[in-house]
Every structure is written in structure tokens, then in C-alpha cells.
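for the writeup, i need someone to sanity check this before i put it in the appendix. the sequnce is what the collaborator sent (i think, or maybe the updated version? ugh). structure was predicted straight from it, no edits. if anything looks off just tell me and ill rerun, i have time this weekend
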Amino acid sequence: MKKFIKNLLDKLIKWLTQLKTKLEAKIITPLETDIKNFEKQVIADTQIGEQFICHYCHKSFDLLAKNIFPVSVPMLYKESYVQGKGVLCPHCGKTCITG
């Protein structure tokens, strides 16, 4: 009887582990796809070659696709975030927020 219960529990644990793996794959995959699509949209919406002035060092530079990335910025006095574009300044190395 003990052997039967042990086998039954082993099968149940194996089944639950497989189910957990399948559910995690279904949850993570759409989220990763949404993030990649958002990153493509953020870079596509920015005018490459456009002049941008750094908020910190006040020097201007041309926007390049490699220096633009999506960012989440916390809103003041609220517990939510706003999606925007981060631009890395080649002069001072700080991140400016735009968009």
C-alpha cells in the first residue's frame, strides 16, 4: 500500500511540474513579444538624425538608433509609470528622457 501511494504521489508531482512549466511558457512568451514590439515602435517613432540637446550638459548631437531605448519613468505623486524614450548623450554619458 505504501508503494502504491508513493508511486501515485511521484506521478502527481511530475504532472504538476510539467503543468507549471507549460503555464509559465504561455505567460512569459506574450509579455516578451509585447516588450520587443514596444522597443521597435519607440525607436521607429524617433527621427534618426534629428538634433537633440542634452538636458544635463546642454550640448547638441544627432540621434542615432543605437543611442535610443525605451524607458519607464515614475510619475510624480502617483504610483504609475509613463513609457518614453531614453536617449544616451555621447558627451556626458547621461540618459535624457524624451517622447
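The mean pLDDT is 75. The beta strands are 51-53, 60-62, 68-74, 81-88, 95-98.
thx in advance!!
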